[in-house]
Design a protein that fits this description.
CATH superfamily of one domain: Alanine racemase
Number of helices: 7
Shape: elongated
Largest sheet: 7 strands, parallel
Helix content: 25-40%
Radius of gyration: 20 Å
CATH topology of one domain: TIM Barrel
CATH class of one domain: Alpha Beta
Strand content: 15-25%
CATH architecture of one domain: Alpha-Beta Barrel
Order of helices and strands: EEEHEHEHEHEHEHEHE
């Protein structure tokens, strides 16, 4: 991985931003507080990530920044989008994404939001609990639609980040324990007509400063993934989540 660039710097005593070194001076006369986004930075960072993850589909977490122009630019570059609410689903559609471009994550999905996602036939719903999987079954049967789901599993791995944004330990509220797998598999087997079981997912948290915990979690989850593949022919997805500070 190449060393991170300084996108905000001084050149000839003027503050400039981004690969094109756009001057800030023209913004100084604006009479209101202003957020400044440089799409050249967005493009450059996305392409750098894409070059390092050959053969991997990238999904942008909309919660990071839902600005319409940023979303449209990422769509043009081939990104999918990770959404966590009905509002974000609508925003993604407005930006030009289609349901097959979307992953629906989040621990607080409402019945209304799950209904919306199932009706749209969103590419992937990350299931956070046994109760949520049962809820998806009920809604899918009522709607006559098949839901594509993966299990978000909690590998009980710590990472080097602030404890408030770490999500990979058993005392966190995110994801399911490996001990839940027998009951989850039983639900899948009883509802194969309305569920498309695609694989597993993890997300250890945000702003990871090194890869040690991430590597450990992937190795743990890979064994689970391989064992599940032996029992479910439909499995083809290994979702490793995000939060990689080293890519910023």
């Amino acid at each position: 991985m190449s060393k991170a660039k300084l996108y905000l710097q001084y050149e000839n005593q003027h503050l400039v931003l981004g690969p094109q070194k756009n001057p800030f001076v023209r913004l100084l006369k604006l009479p209101w507080p202003t957020y400044v986004y440089d799409l050249d930075i967005v493009r450059e960072r996305f392409e750098m990530m894409k070059s390092q993850l050959s053969g991997v589909q990238i999904y942008y977490a909309m919660k990071a920044n839902p600005h319409l122009q940023i979303l449209k630019e990422l769509k043009k570059m081939g990104s999918g989008v990770d959404v966590v609410s009905g509002g974000e689903i609508e925003r993604a559609l407005e930006a030009g994404f289609v349901p097959q471009d979307m992953i629906f994550s989040g621990v607080g999905k409402t019945i209304k939001e799950l209904t919306q996602a199932i009706k749209l036939e969103i590419h992937q719903i990350n299931v956070e609990s046994i109760a949520e999987l049962r809820r998806i079954c009920t809604l899918s049967r009522q709607l006559g639609k098949k839901a594509s789901i993966v299990f978000r599993l909690n590998p009980n791995v710590d990472i080097e980040t602030h404890p408030y944004i770490a999500t990979g330990l058993h005392n966190n509220k995110f994801g399911m324990a490996f001990s839940d797998l027998p009951e989850l598999e039983e639900i899948i087997l009883k509802n194969q007509d309305i569920l498309s079981f695609k694989g597993v997912s993890l997300h250890l948290g945000s702003q990871m400063h090194n890869l040690a915990g991430f590597r450990e979690a992937v190795q743990i989850l890979r064994e689970v993934f391989v064992n599940l593949q032996k029992r479910f022919a439909s499995i083809d997805t290994f979702d490793v989540g995000g939060g990689w500070e080293f890519l910023r």
